[in-house]
Amino acid sequence: MRQTRLERILGIIGSRFFVVFCVVLMGQAVVAAPLSAVMYGGQWTETDLVPIVTRQRTDYRNSNIWVLGVNRIFMYRNAFRAEGEVLAAKHTGVMKHGEVVAVGILHLGVPGTPLFLRGGEGLSVATENPSMENRRFDPLKWPWVRRSQKSSQFLNYLMFEVGFNLPTSQPVETFLRIHHRSGIFGLMCPPTCGSNFVSYGVRMPIGL
User: Fold this and answer.
1) Which of 40, 63, 81, 157 could form a cystine bridge with 122, CB 3.0-4.6 A?
2) Any bridge partners for residue 163, and if so which?
3) pLDDT tens string 188-205
4) What percent of the chain clears pLDDT 70, i.e. is strictly above it?
5) Domain residue spans in the chain?
């Protein structure tokens, strides 16, 4: 049976709550976890998300993102951590708008090494419709698309990150992050919308 758009939205929301519920069940509460500052900058890549992650393909354009935010650990178990971030971003170059992001993150430390992996799911709100996200679509690739091909200020947010804990007295982390705005394969905007930024940054405690 073909699902309606509302059913797909409810299914996605339900699956997210299920994942959060599982994380809560396996986690342990963290008492007075300090906030950490998050800072990173990146450049727009024309390549889709999967080729970036699996084949390290990039096709950069003259558009940059500069991000400042806060991170807090909510729970942990062994090498796993559940975290949250709130981010404020400024775009420069071709695009000039701002962006606000709220994202839940699952952190996995690699045992016996200073390396870690992170993946996150959340929401992104741009202060205007990002011009570079309004792409031309291929009617052969996306034959079911019948609506406007414009992007949206309000999109899904995904992040994938690999990082390194620096050997300092304070837990300072450096990382490479894919900053991805997504229409969820046509659910929130046409399949051709969205954006990817390959970014580099640092995370450090601020003691609050």
Assistant:
1) 157
2) 116, 175
3) 666 667 788 999 999 999
4) 65
5) 5-205
